[in-house]
């Protein structure tokens, strides 16, 4: 690398870092005491992830892929299926002593945002885009509303640089056929998996699409027999189904009666499924597509060998996690993944990509709720907006037919996946199935419970298409005056900035209540803490009530918690906790459920066994969140005495607790 290239790379990185500071402003001024989201949401757990990595590595001297700081009743847990983001934790090891936990976390967040822009720039340059177009594409991906919205909660999804880096490495491998590039490609998959569990799966899907596009083509076969009559019959049936669905929606009738035959129409899932299948059959009959390999078998064998090398490199890098997964399989401790045809997680709305920036400081109040699911914390999960200015530039490229078909297909593929199993339009479920309706049943892919997150890959694809289109426009303007060309580029940059910059950002306090400092200094033994309300939370369900802030506050007091939150919690652990009469009642009261007198009596009788196994030292009651019934039961059943009181919390300890006799379980 010559000095000029080095200087350009350095200036590019500095520019993206400055842009990341602008996108998060005024957070860079308050790194140590503020956050982009509340610690009561998922962001609290991501800060805990950041802390526990270093804590387990340096304090407990083992690989930081498991902990005994959660689920103190049922035993240590591993992070095999948790959105742990150990890549961020690794950077936090040297930074936390220098900047504090929150300061180090925020610094890594800003760096991750900048890295995603730099990686996209690198990919765009690899694909032949000019410097200006490639740089703008990286900036566009960094500022994409789908990524900005997730900065408030889903920190691991912000570490998006491995996605373009994987594509960059894969394209190098396909072009050079070198073993070292194949190894690099496998390592990029591991890096993506260590950033966010979904990202490793996304790399597999992206790689499968790009490789398939390179090695095969779809052609139309000549028809061997007339198909007009068959097509007309299918058209008639499709039209009939459409009329039936429209009639059902307009009339609100839940059944169709024809003579003595009654056809239930309580939902439109079945008619819509039949409609999609018939439409697919019609397309196949008309086009009779066939797949043809475009590479000789010798080259396919060479690519297969490189694929094996990439898989081996990825496996070696991910061995700590894969061994934990294997242990879970052998001991039947994998979390259950039940995929329901009608009730699984939805994707983004079809029109959500056209919503004006819902993070914008001026217009967010109007657009933030457009086409978003009504459930709590839905905003960071379902935002998929993209720059309208960039879409207009892409439209020019499409009109001029200068956009590469590979990246059009790539973006369209992940756009379809992001719509989820059933397509929603303007908030209405059309019941029309998308490709994710079938792919979600494929092993490994079934772990992707949130198809809306495919919007991040769509943002990457759109950023690349923008680079191709902008580069073509600038090349056309090159024949004219340089001033005109620079003026156009400056105008596009200003419009993008005006549309996408979300600053000033709303900041949230990172302060930890003072009572947790008292817990940290309250003496030995450093036994577990039971916070009320309490529960077990994962990405599928919540037993009881558990707040992510409890794990964030643990970074100060460092006592193990009776409850906990991980992305995936095994059914074994949930059942093991529910076997305790005391926890059953505490979970139920935490969730506001009724508890019978018999259940209360059984829980009271189990006090000694519960305390002996959990080794619980303190109970901290959040009086603003715990019901009066929960507070009274806990004090009476556990025989608690007051240690300290403040305006919000009551810190208590059990009287006459039996000796600790915990049996270490696992996972």
Give a short overview.
With about 675 residues, the protein is α+β, with helices and mostly antiparallel strands.
Annotate the secondary structure layout:
Elements: H1 3-23, E1 34-35, H2 42-59, E2 66-67, E3 77-78, H3 86-126, H4 131-142, H5 145-150, H6 155-158, H7 162-176, H8 179-195, H9 197-215, E4 216-220, H10 228-251, E5 255-258, E6 261-264, H11 269-287, E7 289-293, H12 297-317, H13 319-330, H14 364-367, H15 379-382, H16 388-400, H17 405-418, E8 422-425, E9 428-433, H18 436-439, H19 455-477, H20 482-500, E10 508-509, H21 515-520, E11 529-532, E12 535-537, E13 542-544, H22 549-557, E14 564-565, H23 571-578, H24 581-590, H25 597-605, H26 607-614, E15 618-622, H27 628-637, E16 640-645, E17 649-654
Parallel strand pairs: 11-15, 12-14
Antiparallel strand pairs: 1-10, 2-3, 4-7, 5-6, 8-9, 12-13, 15-17, 16-17
Can you walk through the features of this model?
The chain is α+β, with helices and mostly antiparallel strands and 667 residues long. The protein folds into three domains: 27-160 and 336-500, no CATH class; 228-287, no CATH class; 515-654, no CATH class. 55% of the residues lie in helices and 10% in strands. The protein contains 27 helices and 17 strands. The strands form seven sheets. A four-stranded mixed beta sheet has the order 11-15-17-16, with helices on one face. A three-stranded mixed beta sheet has the order 13-12-14. Helix 4 (131-142) packs antiparallel against helix 19 and helix 7 (162-176) runs antiparallel to helix 8. It is globular, with a radius of gyration of 28 Å.
């Amino acid at each position: 690398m010559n000095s000029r290239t080095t200087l350009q790379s350095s200036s590019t990185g500095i520019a993206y870092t400055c842009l990341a500071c602008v996108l998060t402003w005024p957070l860079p001024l308050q790194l140590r005491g503020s956050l982009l989201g509340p610690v009561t949401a998922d962001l609290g757990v991501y800060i805990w992830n950041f802390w526990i990595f270093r804590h387990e590595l340096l304090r407990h001297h083992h690989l930081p892929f498991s902990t005994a700081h959660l689920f103190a009743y049922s035993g240590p847990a591993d992070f095999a299926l948790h959105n742990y983001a150990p890549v961020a934790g690794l950077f936090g090891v040297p930074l936390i002593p220098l900047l504090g936990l929150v300061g180090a976390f925020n610094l890594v967040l800003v760096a991750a945002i900048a890295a995603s822009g730099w990686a996209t720039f690198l990919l765009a340059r690899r694909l032949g885009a000019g410097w200006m177009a490639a740089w703008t594409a990286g900036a566009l991906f960094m500022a994409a509303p789908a990524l900005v919205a997730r900065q408030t909660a889903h920190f691991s999804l912000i570490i998006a640089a491995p996605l373009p880096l994987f594509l960059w490495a894969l394209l190098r491998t396909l072009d050079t056929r070198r073993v070292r590039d194949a190894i690099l490609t496998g390592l990029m998959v591991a890096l993506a998996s260590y950033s966010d569990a979904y990202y490793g799966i996304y790399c597999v899907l992206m790689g499968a699409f790009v490789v398939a596009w390179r090695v095969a083509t779809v052609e139309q076969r000549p028809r061997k027999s007339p198909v007009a009559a068959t097509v007309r019959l299918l058209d008639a049936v499709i039209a009939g189904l459409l009329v039936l669905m429209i009639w059902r929606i307009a009339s609100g009738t839940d059944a169709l009666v024809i003579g003595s035959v009654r056809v239930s129409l309580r939902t439109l899932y079945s008619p819509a499924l039949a409609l999609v299948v018939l439409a697919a059959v019609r397309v196949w009959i008309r086009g009779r597509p066939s797949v043809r390999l475009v590479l000789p078998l010798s080259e396919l064998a060479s690519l297969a060998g490189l694929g094996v090398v990439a898989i081996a490199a990825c496996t070696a890098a991910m061995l700590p996690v894969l061994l934990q997964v294997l242990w879970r399989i052998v001991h039947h401790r994998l979390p259950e993944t039940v995929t329901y045809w009608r009730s699984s997680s939805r994707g983004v709305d079809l029109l959500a990509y056209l919503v004006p920036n819902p993070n914008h400081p001026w217009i967010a109040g109007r657009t933030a709720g457009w086409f978003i699911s009504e459930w709590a914390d839905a905003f960071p999960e379902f935002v998929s907006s993209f720059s309208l200015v960039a879409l207009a530039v892409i439209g020019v490229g499409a009109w001029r037919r200068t956009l590469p078909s590979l990246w059009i297909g790539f973006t369209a593929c992940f756009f379809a996946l992001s719509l989820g199993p059933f397509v929603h339009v303007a908030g209405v479920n059309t019941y029309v199935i998308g490709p994710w309706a079938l792919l979600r049943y494929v092993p490994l892919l079934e772990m992707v419970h949130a198809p809306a997150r495919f919007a991040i890959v769509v943002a990457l694809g759109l950023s690349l298409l923008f680079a191709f289109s902008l580069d073509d426009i600038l090349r056309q303007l090159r024949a004219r005056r340089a001033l005109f060309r620079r003026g156009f580029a400056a105008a596009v940059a200003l419009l993008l900035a005006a549309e996408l910059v979300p600053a000033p950002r709303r900041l949230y306090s990172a302060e930890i209540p003072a009572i947790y400092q008292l817990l940290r200094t309250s003496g030995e033994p450093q036994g577990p803490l039971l916070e009320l309300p309490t529960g077990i939370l994962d990405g599928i369900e919540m037993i009881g009530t558990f707040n992510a802030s409890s794990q964030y506050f643990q970074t100060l007091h460092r006592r193990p918690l009776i409850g906990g939150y991980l992305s995936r919690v095994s059914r074994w652990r949930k059942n093991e906790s529910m076997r305790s009469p005391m926890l059953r009642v505490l979970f139920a009261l935490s969730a506001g459920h009724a508890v019978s007198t018999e259940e209360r009596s059984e829980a009271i009788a189990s006090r000694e066994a519960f305390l002996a196994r959990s080794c619980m030292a303190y109970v901290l009651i959040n009086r603003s969140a715990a019901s009066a019934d929960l507070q009274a039961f806990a004090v009476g059943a556990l025989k608690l005495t007051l240690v300290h009181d403040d305006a919000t919390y009551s810190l208590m300890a059990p009287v006459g607790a039996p000796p600790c006799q915990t049996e270490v379980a696992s996972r």
